[in-house]
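Example record

The entry below shows one chain as it appears in the dataset: sequence first, then structure tokens.
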Amino acid sequence: MPKLHRKRDGKPLRDAMARAGLSGPELAEATKEVDPAGKGVSPATVGRITGQGKTARDRCELETAWFVAEALHRRTNAPLQDLFAMPTPSTSTIERSSPDADEE
């Protein structure tokens, strides 16, 4: 499953949190409301994807991004695509073949 990249070092996430009036732990709690299993996202994970320091992470699992974005969307109407971006395709996964001239 692809990992999503937070946009602009997490600034849109932090802005949406501010508009929603949610701290990191409160956002983590709000993700439980949108998780069918009721587990949500841990406060530490929310801190890593919204933070700016050494522990900040630019990528997260699609499910994590969805729970965070959905919890924020319910309070601010911010869609997932405003907060996270899909990764660009990697050329290392493209299958390559040798040219016909190499075969004899």
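Notes for this example: Strands lie at 3-6, 59-61, 84-85. The first helix runs from residue 11 to 20.
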